[in-house]
From TrEMBL:
<dbReference type="InterPro" id="IPR036291">
    <property type="entry name" value="NAD(P)-bd_dom_sf"/>
</dbReference>
<dbReference type="Pfam" id="PF03435">
    <property type="entry name" value="Sacchrp_dh_NADP"/>
</dbReference>
<feature type="domain" description="Saccharopine dehydrogenase-like C-terminal">
    <location>
        <begin position="137"/>
        <end position="385"/>
    </location>
</feature>
<dbReference type="Pfam" id="PF16653">
    <property type="entry name" value="Sacchrp_dh_C"/>
</dbReference>
<protein>
    <submittedName>
        <fullName>Saccharopine dehydrogenase</fullName>
        <ecNumber>1.5.1.7</ecNumber>
    </submittedName>
</protein>
<dbReference type="GO" id="GO:0004754">
    <property type="term" value="F:saccharopine dehydrogenase (NAD+, L-lysine-forming) activity"/>
</dbReference>
<dbReference type="InterPro" id="IPR032095">
    <property type="entry name" value="Sacchrp_dh-like_C"/>
</dbReference>
<dbReference type="InterPro" id="IPR005097">
    <property type="entry name" value="Sacchrp_dh_NADP-bd"/>
</dbReference>
<keyword id="KW-0560">Oxidoreductase</keyword>
<feature type="domain" description="Saccharopine dehydrogenase NADP binding">
    <location>
        <begin position="4"/>
        <end position="133"/>
    </location>
</feature>
Amino acid sequence: MAKVLIIGAGGVSNVVVHKCAQLPEVFSEIVLASRTESKCKAIAESLSRPIKTAQVDADNVPELVALIKAEQPDLVINVALPYQDLHIMDACLEAGVDYLDTANYEPLDTAKFEYSWQWAYQDKFKNAGITALLGSGFDPGVTNVYTAYLKKHHFDEIHYLDIIDCNAGDHGKPFATNFNPEINIREVTANGRYWENGEWVETAPLSVNRVFDFPADIGPKKIYMMYHEELESIVKHFPDIKRARFWMTFSDNYLKHLEVLGNVGMTSIEPVMFEGREIVPLQFLKALLPDPASLGPLTKGKTCIGCLAQGVKDGKPKTMFVYNVCDHQECYREVKSQAISYTTGVPAMIGAKMMLEGKWKKPGVWNMEQYDPDPFMDDLNKYGLPWELVEIDASVMEG
Ligand code: NDP
């Protein structure tokens, strides 16, 4: 029996709130607060049990502290944007409440994906006796837990790790992103980076690709290597890993639009003057693109996200793939969101459940793979993201 304060009322929040509301024995009280309270109210109205809503600017630490102190939640779930992470962590420290998020902090003016800022809070959280769980979405999140599970049960050493994220869904729009367009485009247009033999190797954005044959009738798709934040914590916590890479599928159509938008400067985060005022092209583009939440009823098809690990067990080489397949339309039927928000929101709820049940709780700032993966893996099967584990031929990632 616990009370949670959920901050942010976008696509991911909608799923987190629905999933928490389905488990009143854990989440007995829910408060949903965001910049625009009407969005919280719209989510609240779609639920079968009452929750409280509030207005808050999560960049205003005193305002947040006042809300947390007034509501006295056991945990704050941050599903606003990465720009708010440090402000919400500061407010949790001041109010003495546990913290969870789904994406690492990003400064608004630099597309820089790293945990340094949040890891710097380790001693502050430890001294305050409160816990912060970082990156409890799918990737980061489930992919970190998959890696920990593979290492715990199936490998003595993991040498090569490939995290592979496929969205084989189709929303029928010429160009749209499946989650916050600004965050998505900043990530995709950044340089690629992978870990090899103790150092990071940089690649030009989306310049390395290959074809991967996905399970569950998705079939072969082109995957592109890019940087993703969980690589940083995974290689730190599993030093046996010699090479770690992240891959994502993109349709030719998506890449064509992105290239043109990039060429004309629309994906830039550098401010420009327009009719006497400063605007950020990417923020303007976000205003033109479809709201990811509006894609829910339109999106058909499946997602498949998994970890492919190569290593040794009992002196013998071994390759395993652990993955989840999620169907956009089934997600929409359950919680009125497409699978991208669903695959992020369900792990956020499970991470919160782990903390509130005391299974994942120790003062300090932690990444997902630092805890025992077993109870989380069990809950993935129970709450909507069942996984499969198969032994496969190592040659699938050659070339
Ligand atoms: P949305 O843009 O749909 O929602 C963000 C919400 O945060 C909006 O309700 C927005 O309010 C609110 N918000 C923004 N700024 C503030 C502020 N200063 N104070 C209070 N509320 C604020 O994003 P998504 O739901 O798609 O994504 C949510 C998070 O999930 C992001 O951090 C994203 O990076 C992460 N994510 C993680 C994934 C993973 O697998 N780990 C995958 C996908 C997303 P308003 O409505 O007023 O704009």
